[in-house]
Design a protein that fits this description.
Helices cover 50% and strands 3% of the residues. The protein is mostly helical and 545 residues long.
């Protein structure tokens, strides 16, 4: 079914019933009254076992969708055990997810530009990991850094003149963000600053001594480090731009991509890479934040030594308290609430400064904070389109087994949902605030996606709800038990009674509202259960996480 196809009459019934429900916002759900706490060492998250509501909250904020298996694991072993493992992603083998292994076999990872990666592979690789990687926190942070250091495919491509080269530059940048997602912010800043995609996107390829281009310098301050209007002046932008003169991109011999001083060439197999050209670098002395306590003086440097100017700026900015505050606030907004509590941001800044900008350690502060644990701050964020689709796919164990299905999923995101991966057109990245996720068209498209559970074709995500229910020992003729299984994985039981009752009634009646008991052997069992799953997934509560 195309993302733009009109719903059929049975789903229209479910859709209409769902939209007519006026339900209260979800609360924290039920949990044990005195849940046991888990022990934790230094740099660890102190977790809680036996609390379904908290387990669901942790998964909604740190993954692209709750799964029954993960929910059971967090309830049984505790939220801290799971989070501490996620904070060390390299300890989690990717082959823990057969679905990821199967899908990645269809998306060969390129070794470079010469492998001619396609845009479909680029996006598919990202979607495969978001939906199926067992390293879910790493994928959430990759999504965060991709937005924080946003580059726009269609702005890079005209400069490269090559789709495959552009795909590779975006792929390489994304892989660096994934690898360093929980590392030091300084390293992430270097990854971005030396990324050919970023150098092209923000015009540093045109930054030369006799005509400095200030675009990258300005966005480095406004978007990547300190934030807008945080004490710097135009003179600081100019001085920083001077430091990055000569930082550009050129074609080099394969194998020389990591050497910014490698000679540029025109060979048939030469590839695009970060390059420093001393001939166009301003080698004079620079003074940044002049007269402030954060003043940085960079000495005059000639020749290849001038490359260090830019790296000195990156190191200095990464260590500033203002950078710690700006990025910490964004992380709190991502994982806790749109309106970040100053006390929590202060605690994050302190830990940032103690650890040299360790993102992992800042996250430990966030996950241990009263704000993250506060039931009043659960269900208060609207998921992005990717998170919304992911919640349904992961919750009901939807399968993507060929590239056509991945392409169809990309079409949902590229359409009215408007979360185009690698193709967000402004340098400030995809918006995080909840109000930016809402709108009639977006909400209807999310509901329409859920219709694929009931009536999707071979190119849509594939669903086997009979197997899903049997694996959870749910009686196939028990409408209430089936609905409760759906509610547990999607809402962790935090659903208004009237909404639950409406779903049970929907599954227990025919199109005319007459009683119609479920028969697992009947021809209509599958369609009725699929429609009900779509109904439950489309409830208003699904617009919060």
């Amino acid at each position: 079914m195309s993302p733009l196809t009109t719903s059929s009459r049975p789903f229209a019934r479910a859709h209409g019933a769902c939209l007519l429900l006026v339900v209260a916002a979800c609360g924290g759900g039920s949990g044990s009254s005195t849940p046991p706490s888990e022990p934790a060492g230094p740099g660890s998250v102190i977790g809680v076992a036996g609390d379904l509501a908290l387990a669901g909250h942790v998964l909604r904020r740190t993954t692209f969708g709750v799964t029954s298996a993960a929910l059971d694991e967090l309830v049984t072993l505790g939220t801290g055990t799971w989070l501490n493992r996620q904070l060390d992603p390299q300890s989690i083998p990717l082959d823990e997810s057969p679905e990821l292994v199967q899908l990645l076999a269809l998306i060969p990872k390129p070794n470079g530009e010469l492998d001619a990666p396609t845009q479909g592979q680029l996006v598919g690789y990202r979607l495969a990991h978001a939906l199926y990687s067992p390293r879910q926190l790493q994928e959430q942070l990759l999504d965060f850094w991709e937005s924080h250091f946003n580059t726009f495919w269609f702005q890079v491509q005209p400069w490269t003149g090559s789709n495959t080269a552009t795909n590779w530059l975006e792929w390489r940048e994304s892989e660096l963000f994934r690898a360093h997602a929980l590392g030091s912010f300084h390293q992430l800043l270097i990854d971005s600053a030396t990324s050919p995609a970023m150098l092209i996107m923000l015009d540093n390829v045109m930054n030369v001594a006799w005509s400095p281009n200030e675009n990258y310098a300005r966005e480095l301050l406004e978007l990547h480090t300190l934030g807008v209007d945080q004490g710097y002046v135009q003179a600081d932008v100019v001085e920083i731009a001077r430091c990055f003169t000569g930082w550009g991109v050129c074609r080099v011999a394969p194998g020389a991509e990591d050497d910014p001083l490698a000679p540029c060439g025109q060979g048939a197999n030469d590839v695009l890479a970060f390059h420093f050209d001393p001939a166009v670098h301003d080698g004079g002395k620079k003074r940044i934040f002049k007269g402030t306590k954060h003043e940085l003086v960079i000495p005059a440097r000639s020749g290849a030594a001038g490359l260090q100017d830019g790296f000195d700026v990156l190191e200095h900015l990464a260590g500033l308290p203002g950078t710690a505050r700006f990025v910490s606030r964004k992380l709190v907004q991502r994982f806790v609430a749109d309106h970040a509590a100053d006390e929590l941001v202060d605690a994050c800044v302190q830990r940032w400064q103690e650890t040299g900008g360790s993102i992992r350690e800042v996250l430990v502060v966030i996950f241990n904070s009263p704000e993250f644990q506060d039931p009043a701050l659960r269900w208060n964020k609207v998921p992005t389109p990717l998170e919304s689709l992911g919640a349904t796919i992961r919750g009901f164990e939807g399968e993507l087994t060929d590239l056509g299905q991945v392409t169809r999923l990309q079409a949902w995101l590229d359409g009215p949902l408007n979360q185009k991966l690698f193709r967000w057109d402004t340098p400030d990245g995809y918006p995080e605030a909840s109000e930016k996720q809402l709108g009639t068209a977006k909400v209807l498209e999310r509901i329409r996606f859920h219709a694929t559970i009931a009536q999707g074709d071979a190119l849509d995500v594939q669903w086997d709800l009979r197997a899903w229910l049997l694996a959870r020992h749910v009686a196939l003729d028990d409408a209430a038990a089936i609905v409760d299984a759906f509610v547990r994985v999607l809402y962790q039981d935090a659903l208004d009674t009237s909404a639950r009752d409406a779903a049970i009634q929907f599954l227990s009646t025919d199109d005319l509202g007459a009683s119609a008991p479920l028969d697992p052997d009947a021809a209509d069992w599958d369609s009725r259960v699929r429609l009900t799953a779509a109904f439950v997934a489309s409830l208003p509560e699904g617009l919060a996480q």
